[in-house]
Structure formats: C-alpha cells, structure tokens
Amino acid sequence: MFDNLSGRLEGIVKKIRGKGRLTEADVDEVMKEIRTALLEADVNVTVVRSVCNRIREHAIGATRSQALDPGQQVVKAVNDELTRALGGETLSITYASKPPTVVLMAGLQGSGKTTNSAKLASWFKAQGRQPLLVGADLQRPAAVEQLRTLGAQIDVPVYSDPEDPVLTAHQGLEEAKRLGRDVLIVDTAGRLSIDAEMMEQVRLISGAVDPDYTFLVIDAMTGQDAVQTAEAFHETLKIDGVIMSKMDGDARGGAALSVKEVIGRPIAFASTGEKLNEFEQFHPDRMAGRILGMGDMLTLIEQAEAAFEQDQAEQAAAKMMEGQFTLDDFLDQMQQIKKMGSLGNLMSMMPGIPKELKNADIDDDSLKPIEAIIRSMTMEERTFPKVINGSRRARIAAGSGTQVGDVNRLVKQFDEMQKMMKKMGVMGGGMGKKGKKGKKGRGGNKRPKGLGPGVDFDPSGMELPGLPGSPGMPGLPGLPR
Question: Is the CB of residue 71 less than 8 Å from the CB of residue 13?
Fold first, then answer.
C-alpha cells in the first residue's frame, strides 16, 4: 500500500543519512522532497503541513546543536512524525468488567464491514475470548448469510433476526449474556454514501447496545474520501478507532496517514489480505518502520509464533543445525509460512530486502512449483536428495509439471542451504548432539551495544543471506530471479 511513498522516503533517508553536517539549505531541500512525497501519497494537505513543520523544527534543531550525526537525527524525526501521524500509540483493548465487551462496526457499504467483523471475531478468539457475531445489516441482501458463512469458518456463532436491526442488536446482547459469550460484535448496515437515515439507524443501534468500542471500517482504496467519511461518522457516533481494510491494495496510503490527525482517533486494526487470518492489530511505530524500509521484525515474529508450534519449530531448528533437515521438513515449513499471511506482506516486514524483490509480484502461487516438485519425489528422494539421478529428475519434472532445470536448481540450492546451516551449527556450538542449546530470548529489535536510543540502529542495512531472489542467490523455481 505504501510502496510509492516508501520508495520516495527511503531515497530521501539515504541521501541524508551519514552526512557529517546539515546546513539549513540541506534541510530546505529535504523538506521540499518530503512534502512532495506526502502530497503524492494523497495525504491530507493540512496533515502534510503540520507533519512537515514538526520535522523541520527537529531538523533545524539538529543542525544548530552540532549533533554527532545530524542526518541520523533527521531520519529519527521523520520516523517519529510518521509514527505520530499514524496514531502514536497502539490502541489497547480493555475488556468490560461485566461481559460482554460490545463492539459496534460502522461504515459505508462496500468498505468491508461484514468481512472485518468476522476477522475481528477471529482475532478476539485468538486472544482466548469467546465472541458472538450479530448480523444487524438487514439492508443488504445476503449480508446475514455472508456473516453466517464466515462465522462457520472460524467457529463463531452468529445471531440475527429479520424483523428490525435495532431490536436484533439488543436481542443479540441478551443472547451473548445467555450463552456466556464475553465479546459481542455487531455488524451494521451501510449505504453507498452518507445519508440521514443510515446515520439515525446506526445511532439507535449504538444506543441499544451501549458499545464499549465503536470501530469505523474504512476502505483504504478510497483515499481522501475515506477521511471525509470518518469525519461524518465521528459527528454522529463516538468513534474509538478505525479498521483500515484493503491495506494490501494499490492505494497510495494517504487515508492511513490522515485519519488520526483529522478525527483524533487511531487506526486500531488493519486488514492485510482476503484471508480471515490476514488481519492484525495496528502498530504505528512498526508501520512507520516499514514505510522507511526498516522492516517490522516484531510483527513478523508474532505471526511466526502464532503459525508455528513451538515443539515443531525447535525440532526443525535442531535438524537444521545438525544438517539433518530434509526436503520433507522443508515442505512442512513452507506450509507453516503460508499460515503467516501473503508472501508480499511478509516481504514488506523484512529489513534489507532488495527493492526489486519487494516490488515483485509475489503471491502464494509462487510456492506451488516448489511444492509440486517435492510432492513428486519419493520419501527416499526427499530424505536423501543425492540419490536423484538424471532419470529421476526427468520423472519428478514430468510429475510436477515443471522443467528438469527447475528440479536441478531446487536440489542444488537445498544442498547449499544444508551445508550453510550445518556450518552455522558448528560455529555456534549449535544445537548439535555435542553442543548445548543457547539461551532463548525474544528481544525484537535488540540494539547493538554502544548505540544511542533511536539514533544509530538501522535495520535497513542488514542483509538476509539465502533469501530466494537476493543478490548472490538465484531464485527458487517460481520465485523472481
């Protein structure tokens, strides 16, 4: 979503990082470029003005203070102001002391309210809660049926009554109490545009259930229209936060960077794909890091922890370090990675990924040729790839619908990966039979010793060896090379 803005800001950051001194003329030039980048990203003009004024204030202060690295101080200022524009703090959900915690979903028709109601229910369920969905959108044909279908996929019950949306919402609240459900999510009707009737209906529903949280679902693809929608809803309802849908689309990102400054409410959640698990709590600081090309390793780690079973992950790590990792294990790891979300989204979180790889059209289908090749192998071939001779390669290629060259490349790269992992295990004392396991820790973005807070640590300078498509490593079959 922020690809164009990210590319522009990364270029600006590279120009000023590491400069021994910055003059006020340098600052003026940088600010001109930042202002242009934000305007081209469809950020609200008022927001652009206030963000740029604050960055300029920091930048001028850095030049006059003769800081050790004024360029890096400006980068920090840009990061801080992007974080502030995106909401500053992560919205923390506080649950009602007397269940259920009631969440009201509002928004225009087509913004993704119904789908995001189910995604939010799935998120609450992952937090150990027991949600109930209420279908109070009786305007749109099949809206309730869609909610029931989505609810069945995530094993969350759905309550609805065809008579009256306000009565349905109230009865849904009573049903949640009767069933002992501790979270109630009410999906309301939308319109193609703001009108008095819709606003009155959602206001009455809000009065009937007295929500703990009212979330406005905004389609990120609608740009500044989304901000105007947010203003209109906020005048009628007490909006607590925004759910930004279609964050995986081609929108320029202006709505996300404008909504907090305009209505004073943060983005609470972001929908990053079509799948029900492609939904995450929104962290402004992490998103700012992504925009500036610094990655978002914390979210990547959290998604990995949710997708991987700890025992399986430890066994896989031990096998890697001992050089006993097989193609069958590799296939299993690929299935686990797919649970973490779209490959494009995962790439955007990794620091040091080449721009051409980030911008490549990578989707889950990119892994299918690799899966097909491995599935066309016998168990012996998956365990001992060295037995794969010419005739076997031809058979595997025919069975997987790929070329012999694709099979050769996969086998060769897997052999190189095994050797590298084995060397790492030996060098680190590893997790081999003779080595002791190192202490495990979760530090997220741990700072190297000797670096000051928020100044010199730059994850974007990191390289990730062995990543398909990275420099010096040809792409696996089906992935860009």
Answer: no
Mean pLDDT is lowest, of 43-52, 113-122, 400-409, for: 43-52
Q: Is 112 annotated as a binding residue?
A: yes
190 is known to lie in a ligand binding site: yes
| DSSP state at residue 1 | -
Whole-structure pTM value: 0.63
Calculate the CA 262 to chain-centre distance.
23
Residue 352 assigned ligand-binding role: no
247 annotated among ligand-binding-site residues: yes
Given a cut of 60, whether residue 414 has pLDDT beyond it is yes
Asked whether residue 172 falls in the same domain as residue 74, the answer is no
CA–CA–CA angle 207, 211, 212 (5° rounding) = 145
What is the chain's mean pLDDT, rounded?
Answer: 77
**Ligand-binding site membership of 187 (annotated):** yes
Confidence band for 70, pLDDT divided at 50, 70 and 90: low
Q: Where is pLDDT greater, at 345 or 280? A: 280
Residue 173 φ/ψ, nearest 5 degrees = -65, -45
Contacts of 377 (CB under 8 A, 6+ apart): 327, 388, 396
Q: Contact 212/96 with Cβ under 8 angstroms?
A: yes
Whether 376 has a binding-site annotation, put simply, is: no
Total number of domains constituting the chain:
3
Is position 248 annotated in a ligand binding site?
Answer: yes
Tokens of 89: 């703090």
Q: Return d(Cα 303, Cα 145) in angstroms, integer.
A: 30
The answer to whether 128 touches 229, Cβ cutoff 8 Å, is no
Q: Is 214 annotated as a binding residue?
A: no
Q: Is 110 annotated as a binding residue?
A: yes
- 111 marked as binding residue: yes
189 annotated among ligand-binding-site residues: yes
Q: Is 108 annotated as a binding residue?
A: yes
Question: Do both 194 and 264 map to the same domain?
Answer: yes
Secondary structure (DSSP) of 80-101: HHHHHHTTSSPPPP---SSSPE
> What does the pLDDT look like over 356-373, one tens digit per residue?
545 555 556 677 898 899
Same-domain check for residues 155 and 254: yes
Q: Do residues 73 and 18 lie in contact, with contact meaning Cβ atoms separated by under 8 Å?
A: no
Structural domain of residue 61, as residue ranges? 2-86
pLDDT tens-place string over residues 371-383: 899 999 999 999 9
Same structural domain, 339 and 386: yes
Residue type, 19: K
324 lies in the same domain as 178: no
| pLDDT for 206 | 94
Burial 123-140 (b: 16+ CB within 10 A, else e): bbeeeebbbbbbbbbbee
State the DSSP string of 160-216. Answer: --SS-HHHHHHHHHHHHHHHT-SEEEEEE---SS--HHHHHHHHHHHHHH--SEEEE
- CATH code assigned at 54: 1.20.120.140
Q: Smallest Cα–Cα separation from 59: which of 47, 38, 84, 77?
A: 77
